[in-house]
Amino acid sequence: MKNCALAVLAMSVALPSYGYQLEKVYDGLKVPWSVEFVSDTKAYVTERNGGILLIDLATKTHQSLPVPEHIYTSGQGGLLDLSLSPIAPQKLYLTYSSSKNGNSNNNGAATALAVFSPQQPQNGWSTLFTASMEGSGGRHFGSRLLVDEQHIYMTIGERGEREAAQQLSNHNGTIIRLDHNGKPPASNFFSEQALPEIFSYGHRNPQGITRDNDGQIWAIEHGPRGGDEVNKITLGSNYGWPEVSQGKEYWGPISVGDPTSPPGMQEPELVYTPSIAPGSLFFYSGDRYPNLDGKWLAGALKLMHVSVIKQVDGRLMEELRLFEDLGERIRDISLSPNDYLYISTDSGNLYRVLPN
């Protein structure tokens, strides 16, 4: 075990809503993209621009894990989301940007999925899937994971290649579904034109995916200048990008696409204009925070808060914004086994949410 390079300071931030406070429990991290708890006090953390750590909040120390080969760590690329397997204790799934693209016709990086067993570290990371993608820049890789007992859902950005998000012959701008061996299940089939891994398409850059109490899958994605979306995800659905968007072009006040979805494309359940720049989406169901039970929490990077989303008469609406006074980009929202919410920030900090 190694001591954390920077001192960990106790800090509380008083909040006007719900009376919650934030307690800083760890710092000195390098853009902590994902936090995955293995016990009440231990969690795996991916640093987008660094390594994979097992941190101990009780002792304020961490241990470094091996990382996959061929990591592309430029722009928005690097080590991305982590998820523990629900059927194989301690097995870890990881998404990352790989410089070894699965598309032999393209020299650019691609979003990949790998698996690792800490009980057998000598075996290293094994790549299960590498997306076939258009684009060679350093943006819009996604990526978040949702893993259940049967499937792995993985979000993939469109890599800045807008039109590719409407093409079923690549994985740009999709949510894919795999089995635990990295293979597409036969139940994915919805079109002869679609790659077998594709579950939904027409996404821009989805960086949050979660499941509610009814088993419904939800995802949140970046719009351009305005038009961030929360979507209800269903098999074979087209979410419209770039033909449909409520956002504007970066170079001027010109609409990117039609603000209304035509037949055959799905309307978003909630739209943020101006953009909050979502970094994560988490559905909370628990007892420790009764005011948040049954609600979605979205971490905001640009506007630096946690957006609390509730459902009223079947429609999603933003209820309030938490932690605006913190002034940090909210990257991930996670839950420990003892029902404490944690948020990580691009400043390198990990906070525990304290109930009132």
TrEMBL record:
PANTHER family: ALDOSE SUGAR DEHYDROGENASE YLII, HEDGEHOG-INTERACTING PROTEIN. Gene3D superfamilies: TolB, C-terminal domain (2.120.10.30). SUPFAM superfamilies: Soluble quinoprotein glucose dehydrogenase (SSF50952). Residues 29-352 form the Glucose/Sorbosone dehydrogenase domain. This is PQQ-dependent sugar dehydrogenase. It holds the Pfam family GSDH.
